[in-house]
């Protein structure tokens, strides 16, 4: 367990440093990642992002505002429910995320043995 936690922390440190090298904070990178990772659509609601980031709603709103100033994301009212605000990636956000995703993918490949889930034999 210690080795796993150590390698996990190393990966998280890598992620933090990679994001900062691209001019975004680690939280901004995660916000972009979760917007892009929304299943079956190209946006995420503020509430969904708060859940994914495990953050308070008001903190996510402030994070979105900072990302908007960097022209990474855009708020749009929902076509279905005008009370809901959807967050969409802008071209600069897509580019930033694509570069960081490529770096993260390469780093994850170096950790494939460490993050492999062992098979448990329940036949005994």
Structural features, described:
InterPro entries: HTH_MarR-typ, MarR/SlyA-like, WH-like_DNA-bd_sf, WH_DNA-bd_sf. With 124 residues, this protein is mainly alpha-helical. It has one domain: Winged helix-like DNA-binding domain superfamily/Winged helix DNA-binding domain (Arc Repressor Mutant, subunit A), CATH 1.10.10. Strands 1-3-2 form a three-stranded antiparallel beta sheet. The mean pLDDT is 90.
By helix and strand content, what is the structural category? mainly alpha
Q: How many strands, what sense, and barrel or not for the largest sheet? A: 3 strands, antiparallel
**Helix and strand element order:** HHEHHEEH
Main sheet strand line-up: 1-3-2
As for the CATH topology, it is Arc Repressor Mutant, subunit A
Identify the CATH class. Mainly Alpha
Count of individual beta strands = 3
The CA-CA distance between the termini, in Å, is 24 Å
> Overall pLDDT, averaged?
90
Instruction: Write down the overall geometry.
Output: elongated
Write the CATH architecture name: Orthogonal Bundle
Low-confidence stretches: none
* Share of helix, binned: 55-70%
CATH superfamily: Winged helix-like DNA-binding domain superfamily/Winged helix DNA-binding domain
Cα gyration radius (Å) = 17 Å
Count of the separate structural domains: 1
Q: What count of helical segments does DSSP give?
A: 5
Percentage beta strand: 5-15%
